[in-house]
Amino acid sequence: MHAFVGYLVSGLANGSVYGLLAMAAILVFKASRTANFAIGETGTFSAFALYGAVALTRLPYWVGLLVALVAGAVVALATEAIITRNVRSALLVLIGTLGISDVITGINTVLWSKGEPYQEPSFPQLPDVTLGGVGISGQYLSIFAAVVVICLLLYFLLEHTGFGLNVRAAAEDRDLAALAGVNVRRCVMVMWAAGGALAAVAAVLVAPLSALNVSLMTPLLFNGYAAGILGGLDRLPGGLVGGLGLGVAASLIGGYLSSTAEDAILFAVLIVLLSVRPNGLLGRRVVQKV
Amino acid sequence: MTDSTRGPRRLPPASLWPVALSAVAIVVALTGGSFWEYLVGLVLIYSIAAIGLTVITGLGGQISLAHAAVFALGAYVAGILGTRGLLPFPLTIVAGALVGVVAAAVIGLVVGRMTDLAFAIASFGVTIIVQRIATTFTGLTGGFEGLNVPPPTWGGLRLTQASLFGFVLVVFLLSCVVGRRLATGTFGRTLRALSSSKVAAASVGMSGQRLRTTSFMIGGSYAALAGGCYGSWAGYLSPDQFGVSLAITFLSAVVLGGMRSVLGTVLATAVLLGVPQSFQGAGQWTLIGNGLLLVVVTLAIGSKLLPQPVREKLRGRFIPRRAPRPADPADVATAAFRPPASLAVTRQPVLSVRDLSISFGGVAALQSMSLEARGGEVLGVIGPNGAGKSTLLNCVTGVYRPDSGSVTLSDVDITGMPAHRVARAGIARTFQVPQVFSELSVADQLVVSHPTTQGTSLTARVLGTPGARRRAKAVADETRQILDGLGLAAWANEAVTNVPHGSRQLVQLARALVRRPQVLLLDEITAGLPGDEANRLADLFGYLAQDLGIAVLLISHDVPLLMRACDRVVVMDAGTKIADGPPHAIRGDQRVLAAYLGTRQATHG
Question: Is residue B175 within 8 Å of B18, Cβ to Cβ?
Answer without folding.
Answer: no
